[in-house]
Design goal:
The protein is of the alpha/beta class. It has one domain: TIM Barrel, CATH 3.20.20. The chain contains 11 helices and 10 strands. The strands form 2 sheets. Strands 9-8-7-6-5-4-3-10 form an 8-stranded parallel sheet. Helix 2 crosses helix 3, helix 3 runs parallel beside helix 4 and helix 4 packs across helix 5.
């Protein structure tokens, strides 16, 4: 019988999401990779329960996470109906719809048909009556934006989601989506962009400013740029790494050109000079951005989650250090 750690909330740091009363741990567990059938159920359960035992209360999913799509939600659903059955109200669970999930014209995009059908499927896989947060996973220029956003509004009104969010939206479309939500009395909770020390578009192109002005939070994903910001590729490509996998379209050997490798090497030297690991610095770079509420971390094994949890609780970076990181990574070579 599973009994959670009675001291699970003693060490974790929580941030209140702007414009709400929701508090999120500074790192949240993302289920994008390694939480579906590409991993064993026992290893998934081990990571999920360890996270909960150490104050990580936010689990982030999408309809198509896992191999095959939906298997990550199904794994968590089994855990929620067994070990975590009595602790649902201590968890903050999010899911999304927007990318391809099933065949045919209604299994992709931003239509009301797709979003609400997908949400119903997600709730069945998760074995829960509602999610805490439901996202539009991407802006779909083939669907009127108002149709997409009204589907989110109705998800809340039907009691299937407590909050709504937006992920991967360009800045101008993000601003328009927020205006539509607010016109219907719904305040967005979170914006989820791809953001890291190597990929600062959301800040540089004004999306973070929209979030700050409208008073809602940011929860970045891919904060280590598929492992580039952990230092693992500085000397070689490990055989068990994501870059070494031929089925991984997001990170290939071509991604690691000479210019990028030079900048990463300089960043690693700087990290050593301030006596911090590259992983720790990459994590705290993201946590040091306004208005970031939490950072999503993805892991393949328990040891990585333990390392990241320890790193998250270390001293934040100061403004001079954040500026120096920007200077190194934006340097042309």
């Amino acid at each position: 019988m599973y009994l959670p750690n009675p001291h699970r909330y003693d060490s974790m740091v929580y941030r209140t999401v702007p414009g709400s009363g929701v508090k999120l741990p500074i790192i949240s567990l993302g289920f994008w990779h390694n939480f579906g059938n590409e991993n064993t159920y026992e290893k998934v359960k081990e990571m999920v329960l360890w996270a909960f035992d150490h104050g990580i209360t936010h689990f982030d999913l999408a309809n198509n996470y896992g191999l095959p799509g939906g298997s990550a939600e199904a794994h968590l659903g089994k855990i929620l109906s067994e070990e975590l059955k009595d602790y649902r109200d201590e968890l903050f669970i999010s899911t999304k719809a927007g990318f391809r999930m099933w065949n045919g014209p209604y299994g992709d995009g931003g239509s009301r048909k797709y979003l609400l059908s997908s949400l119903d499927q997600s709730l069945k896989r998760l074995n829960i009556p509602y999610v805490d947060l439901f996202y539009s996973h991407r802006f779909d220029d083939q669907t009127p934006l108002e149709e997409t956003i009204l589907a989110l509004v109705d998800a809340v009104r039907m009691g299937k989601a407590l909050y709504v969010g937006l992920s991967n939206y360009p800045t101008q479309e993000l601003k328009k989506a927020v205006a539509i939500l607010k016109s219907h009395g719904i305040h967005p909770l979170l914006f989820q962009p791809h953001f890291s020390a190597l990929d600062t578009w959301a800040r540089d192109e004004g999306a973070f400013d929209v979030c700050a002005e409208e008073k809602f939070g940011v929860i970045p994903y891919s904060i280590f740029n598929q492992g580039l910001l952990t230092g693992k590729y500085l000397r070689e490509i490990p055989k068990d790494s994501r870059m070494a996998r031929p089925d991984n379209p997001f990170l290939t050997e071509k991604s690691l050109n000479v210019s990028l490798l030079n900048r990463l090497t300089k960043l690693n030297e700087y990290c050593e000079s301030i006596h911090r690991s590259m992983t720790e610095v990459a994590l705290h770079y993201v946590l040091g951005q306004r208005p970031v509420s939490s950072a999503l971390v993805g892991v393949s094994r328990l040891e990585q989650l333990q390392e990241l949890t320890k790193a998250a609780l270390q001293e934040p970076l100061n403004m001079a250090q954040l500026d120096q990181i920007d200077s190194i990574l934006k340097e042309k070579s």
